Amino acid sequence: MNRLAGKVALVTGAGRGIGAAIARAFAAEGAAVVLAELDGATAVATAREIANGCEGARTLAVQTDVTQSASLRAAVEEAQRAFGPVDVLVNNAGINVFADPLTMTDDDWRRCFAVDLDGVWNGCRAVLPGMVERRAGSIINIASTHAFQIIPGCFPYPVAKHGVIGLTRALGIEYAPKNVRVNAIAPGYIETQLTHDWWNAQPDPEAARKATLELPPMKRIGRPEEVAMTAVFLASDEAPFINASCITIDGGRTALHHE
Asked: Dihedral of the CA atoms 30, 92, 249, 166 (nearest 10)?
């Protein structure tokens, strides 16, 4: 349970869902974890929960707006003051923006990209100088299966997620000579509160839930902890030659041929 011992990790959007699961898993594996979250109260509550549930866990909650590069730089500085240089960054913060392309407002377009793509770049830009100087680091960007397959009615979210994959590959190649690895994880349907909220917003929530569970070949959807397990692997010293890659976690959904 010490695969990340001695490492300092910063996780954006860590107050709930996949981000919180990653923060818990990192702490359980020995990392000092900084929870960078827009909702400061949620970050504090999750950090406290992790500290109480994991003996010896070191956590820090930092109110962070990923759309603002200065906010992420400040989070990295706080992490360094508390625990030391950031060894691992997980760019998890994201939002769903689904709209008709021709009626979507300029504000919706900008809001989607400000969080889902600019936010990832802002995080990378905040940690890369230190990682390059130390010639060590792992950046993990949470993408989506929307980065490979287009679902009607989900524009412009998949456009931003395609960008996350491009950013991951470009930075991975750019900084490989400096021993900084940049990888992505692409989750499919994962059972988070957002998923439950979507089911409950449908005319027949139970029917919507059952339809979702039928989509993956495994006939279930993923758990946040299953994404977290992969993040631990990519953050650890067990993955030294994995770079500029994306690991898909969707139970085989994107590999399934649809008639």
From this structure: -120
CA distance 70 to 62: 13
pLDDT at position 259 over 70: no
Structure tokens at 92: 């998890």
* Domain annotation for the chain: domains and CATH numbers: 8-187+222-249 (3.40.50.720), 192-220 (no CATH)
Burial of 31 (0-12, 13-18, 19+ CB in 10 A): buried
Catalytic residue ranges: 157
From edge to edge, which strands make up the β-sheet containing 246-249? 58-63, 32-37, 8-12, 88-91, 137-142, 180-187, 246-249
Question: What are the angstrom distances between the C-alpha of 146 and each of 77, 149, 152, 165, 228?
Answer: 33, 5, 11, 11, 19
Mean pLDDT of the chain: 96
Task: Look at residues 89, 45, 87, 95 and name the one whose alpha carbon lies nearest to residue 67.
Answer: 95
* Spatial CA neighbour of 220 closest among 180, 171, 253, 175: 253
The per-residue pLDDT for range 59-74, each reduced to its tens digit, is 999 999 999 999 999 9
